[in-house]
Amino acid sequence: MRRQFLLSVAAVVLAAGGVRADDQVERARAEVEARKERVAWAERMVKMKYLAETQLRAERARLADAEVALLKAQADRRGPEGGLLDRLSRLAVRALVAQQDVERARADLEMARERAAWSARMVKQGYMSPVQAEAERSRAAAAADRLRKATDALKAVGPAGPEKK
Fold first, then answer.
1. What's the CA gap between 17 and 87, in Å, rounded?
2. Phi, psi for residue 122 in degrees, rounded to 5
3. Which residues contact residue 125 at a Cβ distance below 8 angstroms, ignoring those fewer than 6 apart?
4. 138 within domain boundaries
5. How far apart (Å, rounded) are the C-alpha atoms in residues 88 and 81?
6. Which of 7, 74, 130, 139 is least surrounded, with the fewest CB atoms within 10 Å of its CB?
7. N-to-C CA span, the chain
8. Taking a C-beta distance cutoff of 8 angstroms, is the pair 5, 65 a contact?
9. Is residue 150 part of a domain?
């Protein structure tokens, strides 16, 4: 919900500034539309049990990346920083990028954990060596570290909303 709010704030601010559409912005818009169609397809495939939830989350993360790229293209088209609206739009884009990094890191961690669990089962059945399973566990640990760093970066951008008491 917060992501949608930031997207709408950035879009309104950028539209108010009269962003002209150029090739880069148009390509970014086309990418967003393609990603939306891919997410819709992935949702249908999850319902039919052809894809896992983690794959759907990865598609949603790619869509959010495309949305952020569109906002960046629009902001870059405006030129150098100026008034309050420019600073607000750039802050909103930075917050979206940080939030998207956290979402992507969460999806990566979940997939890495699933892969590590799978490799442990394969070792028990004799299909993989213990060294290969250890490599998967190491990848999962690295993904957990990336999530921690992304979360710290998101906190550095600004407050996450109303404080909890």
1. 12
2. -70, -35
3. none
4. yes
5. 10
6. 130
7. 21
8. no
9. yes
Over the stretch 75-119, which tens digit does the pLDDT of each residue have? 776 655 566 666 777 777 788 888 888 988 998 899 899 999 999
User: What amino acid occupies position 47?
Assistant: K
Residue in the structure block whose two tokens are 């990094």: 101
Confidence (pLDDT) at 18: 47
Contact between 39 and 51 (Cβ < 8 Å) = no
Residue 164, domain member (yes or no):
no
Residue 165 located in a structural domain:
no
* CA–CA gap between residue 89 and residue 6 (Å, rounded): 9
Specify the 3-state DSSP secondary structure of 66. Answer: helix
The answer for residues whose C-beta is within 8 angstroms of residue 147's C-beta and 6 or more apart is 102, 105, 106, 108, 109
Q: Which residue has the tokens 């961690």?
A: 109
Per-residue pLDDT tens over the stretch 108-124: 899 899 999 999 999 99
The token duo for 26 is 């148009």
Radius of gyration for the alpha carbons in the chain, expressed in angstroms and rounded: 19
User: By percentage, how much of the chain surpasses pLDDT 70?
Assistant: 76
- Count: domains in the chain: 1
Closest CA to 5 of 99, 75, 72, 142: 99
